[in-house]
Design goal:
By secondary structure, the chain is an alpha/beta fold. The protein is built from 13 helices and nine strands. Helix 3 links the parallel strand 3 and strand 4.
């Protein structure tokens, strides 16, 4: 009897696996970029051809230019509240980093040099010589590396829960075993439940992610071909030498961090300040905010940036930490 049950389970598992494989290969879980554009594009949306990559850009307001750069699995719509506030005094430019959001795949690949040059080409296409760069999470890496490579083009730099600092090496003896099926699936499709976990970890502990936020993450990352591009982007990441890179930054810098960040500890904000020996730096930390502070405290942080741009060196001389109430 037990043998029959095991055989039946094996057959069922085989059928499920084949069905899943067929659904993924046929794109049953994916949606077209055109459908996503219909749902998520803004009246100000435009697409720029940057060396073969169709990059989604929203350009609003007048005044000194600010470029908002999102992180992994994110998209420019997470900056909606920021754009509403900052566009009253500034020219606010936000874009979907390829292959995220409503941008297309980048035929040139996703290595860091390419991402930096794409940002340079974006500024050129929009006629922007100098700008303030605001980067969150992995978008912060793009921002500070650009600022180090092109200091003459960066007026101010704002890093929010930025990635890019050295990570401890993974111990193969204690790391969980790799799951080839899971890795293969995620290269083609990420279930909503997985992205919901990602969003929840990105918020302050005990915070339930709103449905609109989870749905936006899920839908935007269902674009046909997006997950293969994301896998390629993540695999091509080179940490480089962040201390050496950050020392080349010359722009006045504001480092903001969520005190309740579950992904990157707030002590990393202080490490950024220590590495940035060539620029005045202000560090501010915010209770009640996690890794997605740009959403959790959108208005507060946007207003903080506006104040910083008016008085960029205030509080920077001693690199003292200023914890917001």
């Amino acid at each position: 009897m037990l043998k029959k049950v095991l055989v039946a389970l094996a057959i069922l598992l085989t059928v499920v696996t084949i069905t899943l494989w067929a659904c993924v290969k046929l794109g049953a879980f994916n949606v077209s970029r055109e459908k996503l554009i219909t749902r998520y594009a803004l009246p100000q949306s435009q697409w720029l051809d940057l060396d073969g990559a169709q990059v989604h850009v929203v350009d609003e307001g007048e005044g000194p230019a600010i470029v908002l750069i999102h992180g992994h699995f994110m998209n420019l719509r997470l900056w909606d509240d920021w754009a509403r506030i900052l566009s009253q005094k500034f020219r606010v430019i936000r874009y979907d980093r390829s292959p995220y959001g409503l941008s297309g795949d980048d035929p040139a690949g996703y290595h860091m040099d390419r991402q930096i040059e794409q940002l340079s080409r974006l500024l050129d296409a929009l006629g922007v010589e100098r700008a303030t760069l605001v980067g969150t999470s992995s978008g912060g890496i793009n921002a500070f590396r650009f600022a180090a490579r092109y200091p003459e083009r960066v007026e101010h730099l704002v890093l929010i829960n930025s990635g890019g600092l050295p990570r401890p090496p993974v111990n193969p003896l204690t790391a969980p075993p790799a799951n080839p099926l899971r890795a293969w699936l995620f290269r083609h499709y990420r279930p909503r439940s997985e992205l919901e976990k990602t969003v929840k970890r990105s918020l302050a502990p005990g915070t339930e992610p709103p449905d609109w936020l989870v749905d936006q993450y899920y839908q935007m990352n269902r674009r046909r071909g997006a997950n293969a591009g994301i896998a390629s982007l993540l695999a091509s990441y080179d940490p480089g030498n962040p201390a050496e890179t950050l020392a080349k930054v010359r722009a006045p810098t504001l480092v903001m961090w969520g005190l309740d960040n579950q992904l990157l500890p707030h002590t990393e904000a202080d490490q950024f300040a220590q590495f940035m020996t060539g620029a005045p730096v202000v560090v501010k930390k915010f209770p009640g905010a996690g890794h997605l502070a740009i959403v959790e405290l959108a208005e507060q942080l946007a207003e903080e940036v506006a104040r910083f741009l008016e008085h960029p060196r205030e509080g920077a001389e001693s690199l003292a930490e200023a914890t917001s109430e």
